[in-house]
User: Fold this.
Amino acid sequence: MKHTVRPRALRGVRDFAAVLGAALLAVPALAAGPAQAAPADTAHPTRAEIYQALELGQEPADYAILVDTSGSMKQNGRYDTVRATLRPFLDGLTPQDHVELVTFDSSPHIQYIGSAGDTDAIMSHLPAQPNPHGATDIGAALDKALTELERDDASPVASIVLLTDGEQDPAPGSRYPTSSGPSWTALQHRADAIGDHAQLAGYALPLGSGASGADLLGHVVSDTTELRPKNIQDLGGYLARAGDRTRARQAALLLAGDKGKGLDASWSNGGRTDLTDGTATARLTLRSTTSRVPLTVTGLRASVTDPSIAVGGLPGQVTLQPGKSKTYTVRLTGKLPAGPIPYRRTENKDAVLRLAGRVGSAWEQPLAPDVKLSVPRQIQVTGPAVPLRATVGSAVLLPAVLGGLVLVLLAGWLLWRRSRRPLLTGALLVARALGDQEPERIALRGRHLRLRPETVGGAGRVRGRRRSTDRVASVDLLIRYSPDGSSGRESTATCVPGGHVVINGVRFQHQPAPVAGRVPVGGRSR
Assistant:
């Protein structure tokens, strides 16, 4: 016999479990069972409150109730106790529920078929006493129950409740002479066929202290739970405890879709957040991905990947109802880094959100260990990073760098000019190459000099060019000259210090500047 219930049958037992628990309140003599309710934890909802929030027991169902009326049921007031327990059980059903009440001994007898809601009318059909000479034909009773559940308008949620104190001991001629065989296999096939389109569950309650045929229900309906009180007086307590386990299994089925679901978070800003002033606001949305389970995150803290930016303004604890979301305006403080060269510019950066905190549910503790919600403890961050923008760097850095570069270039140019355009010293003696006329003396100064000799005419220019040798550095003269001043007849020659050159028939001789204690030396041409 199986004690676990298939998912499609879990809801089939929800009303049964609920009203059986209510039976304890209506029959105080049965309330002294072995199960006692634990004090409610004020920090968490009770199981009853959770079940109410889940709206367990709102779906109509079929109930086939099979009551043993054989002679042995008169012992120890068993039959009277069953009658007393059935009344509050029936009171808990709704008019939408469908009830078949069957008593059985040597043969089954349908006492009532119809809607629930009128307990007195249903109870009036029960015999006042069991049959003192009746046998026990559980198989025939199960056949009646399955026949009712096979009707065309049967509810998709069904339960079979079997209350008996004896083994299968039918009268001669029964189709179920033993506890097994082809007739029992046929019953099982019929129950499986009902389970293909309905949520069928069974509850077997053996009322005697010895061997019982109640387990035969488990051979027919695979999703059967056997409830075995120690004595008939404990029936109510055991039913209440079993009812809570049944509701827990039903809750587990309803909450299966939420298993492993938790909270996610994302930024909900429309554009980039400006952090130029060192502070800005952004919108952060927390969303519950569950459909039934409320979630709470404690120790909530937010940060971004950039350690220079702090995130504040979130509450330390947030509770979200299933499928709901909350949006918070958070405060970002800090500066975007300007980089190794902090010039003035607009910096764009995407900061990845990080959230710390522990996610849980107030339902976890009350439902444990029967229902495991498996809530992910971490918040899942979804969506893109938060886009940030800031004006960073110094406003004077770039002009200062550019000015410094100009100064460096100017210094370099001056150095180059000093190297490539040395100062001219001494004088040039200009005369025609042929003849004995007195040469014209032109003093050299500056770094470039235009030539306009009066004695020979024409025009030209002269500049210095530094030249280094193994022994000493010297300044040569680069002389350009045209006899008529035109560029077409211009020629060029280089004159070493103290030397002379002839250009277009004109002799140019360098006369070095006088040095104390030395006499100028004549030059040579090249």
In short: The longest helix spans residues 397-420. The first strand starts at residue 62 and ends at 68. Residues 1-42, 519-526 have pLDDT under 50 and may be disordered.
